[in-house]
Structure formats: C-alpha cells, structure tokens
Design a protein that fits this description.
Blueprint: E1 28-29, E2 38-39, E3 46-48, E4 55-59, E5 67-68, E6 92-93, H1 98-114, H2 142-157, H3 168-240
Helix pairs in contact: 1-3, 2-3
C-alpha cells in the first residue's frame, strides 16, 4: 500500500511562546557567537541556533528567562523537517551590551565594504617558436598573381603561343607580369612601413590613455573611499536609531 501522506514542512518560528518549558542545557552566551550570527536590534532579536544552524527568535528577552523558541531544523517551508530538540527552549545569556554589539557589527560591516576582490590574471598559452627569417617567404600580392594568371590563360588558348614563341598580345602580358613582379618588393616595403606607423600610433594612444588615467586616479580613489564611508555611516544609523 503506497503512502499518500504528504511530508511535513518546517513551520514559521513564533516570536513569543506561552510554554514554560526550559531546556536543562547550559545557557547559550551570546558573547560566544560571531557578530554576523546575532541580531540585537529591537523587535528583531534572534540568533543562529548552534545545533541546527538556522535563524531562531529569542522570546522573553525583557524577562527573567530569555530562551530560544521551539523551532524546526530547517527554514520555513522546507519539507522533511524535524524538530530541533537540542536547541528548542534553550536559555540565552545576554552578556554583551547592545551598544558594544553595535560597534562590533559596524566595524565588521565597514571591513566587508572595503574588501575588494582579487583580480585573477590568466596566463596566455605558450606560442610556438617562430621559424627562421631565411625560411619565411614574403606573401605575393594579388597584382602579381592576377598578371601571372592572365598570361597563363592566354597561352593556353592562343595557337600562336608555342614554346618560347609568343604572339604580340602574349608578349605584352608577359611584360606586364614581369613588371608587376619587379614592383612587388616596393609594395612590400610600403606595406611594412605602413604597419610600423600604425603600431607607433597605437603605442602613442596607449601612453596617452595611461597618462589621462593617472590624472584622474586620485579623484576616483577618493570617491571610492567616500562611498565606503557613506555606506558605513548609513549602517551605523540603522543600528543605533
């Protein structure tokens, strides 16, 4: 027979309880808890239960026996919940003044706001070694390739161009191909000079951007520090208001 009952879910933690039960465990001193696991502002007094690691309100704060309310071991609405028997109804000892806790919370918030992430610089994969200069063939421009192709196509269709003999048209095409071949070194030199000028122009632009950034860097840092101080002041105002 299949089980059709639904799994129980964690219930909402009550702020105040009418039970008089008190756990026989030793009181939990708030001074032993980290600052970020404790909330002492009026109306929201709660802490993280050391047994189930969930936020739990404290009832009877202004009375003689402040204690943790009965709670489940999972956040509200979580299925498969279970009652935290060790932490429920445990007494709480408030041995830290609210003002001192507020100062500690303020310092922790300011340190967290000033903390910046570390930028990870990934190394590029190693490049293969470049071949020797005497083995690097300069690229042939399209002018030489086009002139050579036109000359070869003409000889393949012309009946008068046989062997070393060529018709007047074939002679002119051969002279044009030879002229383009002689001009190729000049074009390659002009191309190299243009690329070098482009690299120099880019280097000057990078230096100019670096100089401009160095001018505004103090103002940017001052604005960052002011923003951190404003956030810390706002947090302090919310704590002590």
């Amino acid at each position: 027979m299949s089980d059709t009952s639904t799994a129980p879910t964690a219930r909402k933690r009550p702020r105040k309880t009418r039970t008089r039960r008190v756990s026989d465990r030793a009181p939990l001193a708030v001074s032993t808890l980290p600052v970020n696991e404790l909330e002492l502002r009026p109306g929201t007094i709660s802490l993280i239960c050391p047994d189930c690691r969930t936020w739990c309100p404290v009832t009877g704060y202004q009375g003689r026996t402040p204690k943790l309310v009965p709670h489940d071991d999972a956040p509200t609405g979580t299925p498969r919940r279970r009652r935290c028997d060790d932490g429920s109804n445990r007494r709480v000892l408030f041995d830290v003044p609210i003002a001192k806790w507020g100062e500690q919370f303020f310092e922790a918030s300011r340190d967290a706001a000033q903390r910046r992430g570390t930028r990870v610089t990934r190394e590029a994969p190693p490049r293969p070694p470049a071949p020797p200069v005497h083995r690097v063939a300069p690229p042939v421009s399209s002018y030489v390739q086009t002139a050579r192709r036109v000359y070869v196509d003409h000889r393949s269709r012309c009946a008068a161009c046989e062997g070393r003999a060529a018709c007047p048209v074939g002679q002119r095409l051969a002279a044009a191909a030879a002229q383009e071949r002689h001009r190729e070194p000049i074009r390659q030199l002009a191309r190299a000079l243009g690329e070098e000028q482009q690299r120099r122009r880019e280097r000057r632009q990078r230096k100019g951007r670096a100089a401009e950034w160095a001018k505004v860097l103090p103002a940017v840092r001052a604005a960052d520090d002011q923003r951190v101080n404003d956030a810390a002041a706002a947090a302090q105002h919310l704590i002590f208001r």
